[in-house]
Amino acid sequence: MIGTLNIQDKRVTIIGAGISGLLIGYALKKKGYQVTIHEKSNRCGGLIETKHTPHGLVETAAHSILVNETVQNFLNELNVELLPVNPKSKARYIYRNGKMRRMPLSFLEILSTIVHLFRKPKLTKKLENLTLEEWGNAYLGTAATQYLLAPFTAGIFACLPSELNTKLSFPKLLPTKTNQSLFQHLRSLRKKPKTKRAQMMVFKNGTEDLILKLESQLKDQIKLNSNIMDLNSIEGNLVLSTPTHDVDYSPLVTATVFISKHAFKNKAPHGVGVLIPRGENLRMLGCLFNSSAFSGRTLREDEVSLTVMYGGTSDPSAVTLTEDELKLIIKAETTQLLGVNAEPAHIEITKWQRAIPIYSLKLTQYLEEISEKFSFKPGKVVFTNYSGQVSIRGMIETVQSL
Fold this sequence. Notes:
Elements: E1 11-15, H1 19-30, E2 34-38, E3 50-52, E4 57-59, E5 65-67, H2 69-77, E6 82-84, E7 92-96, E8 99-101, H3 107-118, H4 132-139, H5 142-157, H6 166-169, H7 182-190, E9 199-203, H8 208-217, E10 222-223, E11 237-240, E12 249-260, E13 273-275, E14 286-288, H9 290-293, E15 303-311, H10 323-338, E16 346-357, H11 361-373, E17 380-382, H12 392-400
Parallel strand pairs: 1-2, 1-11, 2-10, 7-13, 11-17
Antiparallel strand pairs: 3-4, 5-9, 6-9, 7-8, 12-15, 12-16, 13-14, 14-15
Helix pairs in contact: 1-8, 1-12, 4-5
């Protein structure tokens, strides 16, 4: 969040009824603020939508959430039900050299990573200016950066590690001193009070359930089809919760694929999913094994639900492909990856030209500019997925601390 509220004035106008606008609106209403939310479209939720198809649930954006005590308490308050990962399907994979592997590094690459972990790196930049790729190469080595860090980055931001600023995207990874090894840094973090590790979960009735529950709490405060053109005319506190063309976003294609359990050469995939590093002869960024990891994702017992992702900054042209072109690619690559030997029962495709903000050094500079020119005094706030927290979990934690 950028800026602070003027606590002397209980009037708050929020621009945007996406997940960030709804979350902060709900939190401020609970604290006694007079909240009004303006949304220029005819629905709340922004990118988040859950489609209930004859085959099962389809998520257009966020599929899961990392749940800690703060998040759990917040969702319990809203009566939003969650489902944990199937205890027998927790495996996560990286695709390398034609196979899904739980550990994609060779023995020598693991040894090299361990050496890097204990070594004090020689840096040519200030810590706060390091890209995630530069951080990875310095503290983990090139192999771990390419086959562990890069696919993980693509799974969250749909971009390359070279495009992310480490301090902004993963601040906990950054040591406090340049002469500190990663091992020393991680050991210093362990000295802090321990908290229960966050667990990956999904919304039982789809991610849109959170939107609907927030909307029901704010129904008298939300004005749909309301496009505010003059921000200077707004009295009281102002919160901006909308995208901006001043920020770069990753393009993304997600497709939920329903396939018969008998369509696999060997057997249906088991686990949470697989991420695909670039250069592995697959256009796909990753594949989530929805029905293996979570219950209630399909309506038919003989079908499997998968979600495949394409695009990102490494393949921006993917969002320009037609649905027919994408379906051909999906069929070919699910065959290569998972041994699918029959036509999918259904493919539901969603394309976003501007899906996820890129947490780059450019964004850091833009946020500093906002702080200096827009939010320099209490009463003007920016709270959205580019203002410091890209995840739903992070946004919930932020509003809970208001």
